[in-house]
Structures
1.
Amino acid sequence: MKDASPAAAPLEIFLSDYTPPAYLVDTVELVFKLHPTATRVLSKIAFRPNPEATDRTFYLHGEQLKLISATIDGKDANAKITDLGLTAQAPDAPFVFEAEVEISPQTNTALEGLYMSNGMYCTQCEAEGFRKITYYPDRPDVMGVFTVTIEGSEPVKLSNGNDLGGGKWHDPWPKPAYLFALVAGDLVNHPDTFNTMSGKQVELNIWVRKGDLNKCAFGMDALKRSMKWDEEVYGREYDLDLFNIVAVDDFNMGAMENKGLNIFNSSAVLASPETSTDANFERIEAIIAHEYFHNWTGNRITCRDWFQLCLKEGLTVYRDSQFTADERSPAVKRIEDVIALRARQFREDNGPLAHPVRPESFVEINNFYTATVYEKGAEVIGMLKTLIGDEAYYKGCDLYFTRHDGQACTIEDWLACFEEVTGRDLTQFKLWYSQAGTPRVAVKEAWSEGTYTLTFTQDTPPTPGQDVKDPKVIPIAVGLLNDAGEEVHATRICEMTDVVHAFRFTGLDAKPVPSINRGFSAPIILEQDQDNATRAFLLAHDTDPFNKWEAGRALARDVMIRMVTEDATPDQAYLDALLAVARDDTLDPAFKALAFSTPSADDIAQALFDGGVTPDPTKIYNTTQTLRQSVAHAMQDTLPRIYAEMQVDGPFSPDAEAAGKRAWGNVALSLLTRLDGGAQARTQFESADNMTQQLSALGALLRAEVGEEASNAFCEQWKDDRLVIDKWFAMQVSYAKLDAAPATAKALTNHPDFDMTNPNRFRAVFGALAGNTAGFHSPDGSGYALLADWLIKLDAKNPQTAARMSTAFETWKRYDADRQAMMREALERMKAASNLSGDLLEMVTRILNA
Ligand code: BES
Ligand code: ZN
């Protein structure tokens, strides 16, 4: 967070203004004398002039620090202090800077820098949190070797690197300050070891509060599988003798990849069958992998500046999605990723917050840890791999790892490695990093005497600051089927490079049915004239599992849109297609569950808006209900059998197969609940021995408005488990009927267990409100007003989380004049609030300026 005082003009930083640091750091020695409100931090930093620098200004970042003393080579530094940092006269030769500052972890509710969570000290330094610990060149292109001493009565004291004993730590790998970490508290560990590919033994630990020791085994197993996978797939070995993970209850994000000391939101690491759902297990496995993979993509090779964030995040998300695909089901993972991409990134790309994967300017970097940088950033890596092929991809990665080890790099450095191994010019490809907006690709087909031609036309709509777009290179995977559903042309990558680009397929007996953008090979919006019969045909026959699902999704979207705009009844062709999916014994149950999920209310709202129709959230809600009711009726004879067949016997296992059966069984349960008044769901709720079954049953009951009793029992049963109670808070709001969500959320803020300083709890209530489309957009505007009230309150304590949650308003221009006026009012009210942080101010300003 920047200086929060209203007088300070927000400072916009530009990629084009990058200059190398004036001084580099060799070594850093830190001593922490821990105290809740008066921690002393002593620093001794060896600086030397950077030969590549153009100026010699000695400037150190520092915010909310009380300076006790500062010296240069033992003499008073005569430092000039501002709200943002320190300047001093420094020699044009190597020198030692020493300082002592005082900070107050206990009162640090922003959860950035050194703070306290449940009596435990911990840090979060990415992106610019180290400057709240001491004066330092807090930029990722300054890398130093850290030695840390922690003084305090806490039984466990941890920092990066190797344990020298007595609270002293040494990290041999030079690192930027954002990877620094410190933890101290009354913790216990779940230990294990891992033998690396070169035969070194690494000590592994997951550190938790005493009561959580029974929730560590799964995370540890996921860590070891991640370590093995990175050796096997990318040839990357771990590089310290010790790897520590710590679970923290109060944490803004999911987790953080600090060198040798990853810090996790407890929700992103603690798992047990009784308290975690299958979705939780999958997420925990992915986050552990993600943070571990950063050791190479992020830590050994880091970012030159924060504009290059996708260099580590997009790549690491790509790597963790490869891992999940390998460990579980590639088809299911791809479908899940595309659902999330559309829900978060397409939404962002199509609104006021649209920005390139590599932004060109920012005010607050914390606001750029976005779906675009992460998810679209990962898609860009996937496209690169598709375009150059697997072999060249891994060769390029190897070159990147060897050439840039120990450096702070740019996207140019990354791409140069692939240009070098392939001899290919990636200039046009680079537009994916610099141009915002989701390309729309229109498809036309032609058939003549054995030749089938697909003509694609690309168009990327204007985004803030970018009116005109150049054509991008788009890898579109295409396969062709005949009328019998047999593949007559295997998948081919059509490399689109122009605005209009035609691709011919020859030697065909009859006009084929195309399957376009297989595997979602490019993150585009495909505009093709496809009738519902063709969609149903592809849902039944496409050999590409992603497009098989996609056809069903397009069908569902079309059915819902016609229900909303034409008051149509649910299309029989859709119901028949679903029935066929349900009966197809060759399909993976997890796939069936995904094929039955209907597009979200937000998806439908977006699709309506794109088609020139103002979405009515109430109508979308009612349509979804009607459609699901129709599906339940159409399936009524089959549901009990599906439900029975999908029961998993024996001890709980979170593996993909068992999870898939539970998912499909619970789809059947939720449909059954619409027919049986909740009898089956109540039985499942009462007999469940794992959270997936218990929570699914509760959700089905709440959706059918017969869940109050179960909900109370659930709350009583789990009152001592914070992570489960988060679920309970979220369920009330997510499953509140139509426009009851704002009142429900408001009532929950008065619940004794509501705690706005815990980001998980705040998100449980208000994330659920924002995600309940009909509820958030209640016609009386109470959803908007409530969220604005609470974001203003939260902003005073935790600007980063408040700013992130303001994206609930990013779609305001889609809606009718009344709703737009009320959302504008809410945004203006936040903007005018006194002492608003720079974080939230930047967000509401950008949203309003659409
Ligand atoms: N480096 C980030 C954590 C982070 C994000 C720190 C924003 C500071 C500001 C970490 O690697 C990360 O990306 N975590 C994700 C989870 C991941 C699986 C995408 C998160 O925390 O949500
Ligand atoms: Zn990350």
2.
Amino acid sequence: MEKLEQLYEGKAKKIYKTEDPDVVWLEYKDDATAFNGLKKGTIEGKGSLNNLISAHFFQMLEEKGITTHFVKLINDREMLCKDVKIVLVEVVTRNIAAGSLAKRIGYEEGTVLPLPIVEFYYKDDELGDPLINNYHIKILDLATPEQLAKMEEMALKINEILVGYLKDKRVTLVDFKLEFGIHKGEIILADEISPDTCRFWDADTKEKLDKDRFRRDLGNVEDAYKEILKRLTGQN
Ligand code: C5P
């Protein structure tokens, strides 16, 4: 497979064409942004860590019956994925109150929710990815009701799988954001699952092992991402 012209450059990844129209080449970058691009930086090694962490999660989820865009790893920083049309709805699932939810409903960060919450956000940088519901999604024509129901169902299933899987690795899954794409008419899991898009807390110490270390200037960002890869794969 050959890497052809660049199709897109996002905040965390570049996407290239390949000679197969159904397959794209993803390159993960070390660039880090937060607060809708207001805070910018570089986390050394982040690109390869997130590529390897995402590949690990995608492979594990595929084995459990979740269809993802992942095709195969090319090297530490790059993977091949199915070409998808990204649905402009970001799906956030939460098990513990943190971040914007803690602020919005006045819960102390760390409060365990009695059941998972699924939220939808409009994937639009200019608008700052606002929280939306099924009515907004219908009016904005972002997804059909069937597609939305499928994304919600998949998010809850993925949550269940990830919570159990991570518990064994002594990691608590606080919350995470998923993006879905349409491939050959079907909704499949796309984008990435990494410390950039999830809140991971050490199950014993509650130490943050995710992008909150960058957002909140807590230091040791790269070490936290490395720790997640190590817990998942045993790799350093
Ligand atoms: O900021 P907030 O509490 O709403 O984030 C919820 C979850 O979604 C966190 O795990 C965060 O890392 C992720 N997220 C993301 N991309 C965004 C917004 C949130 O990956 N644009």
3.
Amino acid sequence: MKIDILTLFPAMFEGILNESIIKRAMEANKVEIHRINFREYSTLNNHQVDDTPYGGGSGMVLRCEPLVSAIEDVKRKDSKVILMTPQGKTYTEEDAQRLSSEKHLILVCGHYEGFDERIREFCDEEISIGDYVLTGGEIPAMVLVDSIVRLLPGVIKKESYENDSFTNHLLDYPTYTKPYDFRGLKVPDVLVSGDHKKIDEWRERARIENTKKKRKDLYVDKE
Ligand code: SAH
């Protein structure tokens, strides 16, 4: 998979692209990730990318021309262009799974007051990471990169994510590690019994109980 991130602040991605699982996935050629500063596509003096809104009002609005030129420059036949916006569809694990089978993602990060409405015409999909407003689309783009790349074949073991929360509309089961007794809080006996059939049954029940307790909405969805 190839991911192109169109952003005015490429340095914001240093952390996520240079640490841990995403870095290893890039080194192993499981994914190719490029940051493109669309300021370079501006044809105005001093590479201006924004301007005041028609009709007046506060804040600066991203102009169509640099962003659309950048999209058109990197776009291929099989690309999916995703606009990061609080007005988009709320992102879920299902979207991460769906997008993980795409060949080429182009993530468009807005900034300032937002972008010229006409930019929407040049994108295939609009995604929000939740009902709150951030200063830019960079953190939302990082959320997509992280959640998608971990699902790519060979990045992490399938067993590591097949029971993860939100898979099959359930949350994950509770997990424990050493010590057995932490300040009087003990690990459930079944997990130290060595009986793998019982452990599997306990985990399956625990996923259901966990979901009913913490996220009834997910469990009801399943009915
Ligand atoms: N005035 C706009 C918000 C602008 S925030 C509005 O109310 O709709 C600036 C940029 O940050 C947006 O263009 C978008 O790219 C990004 N952004 C902010 N919150 C976001 C969210 N919840 N999900 C995805 N992108 C978001």
